[in-house]
Amino acid sequence: MTMKSVLKTSAFFLLLLFVTAESIKAQKVKITTSPQSAKIFVNGVSMGAGQLIVTVPGNECVTVQIVEEGFIPETRTYCKKRGVSPPPKTDYFQLQPDESYTSSLQSDIANNEIVLNVKSDRTKTEAWRIIVSTILSKFDVLENNDEKLGYLRTSWVGVTFKANTVRMRVIVKQASDDPLSYKIKLVSENSGRSGTSFSADEQYRSFDRILKKYDGFLEEISTKLKN
Question: What is the pTM of this model?
Answer without folding.
Answer: 0.78
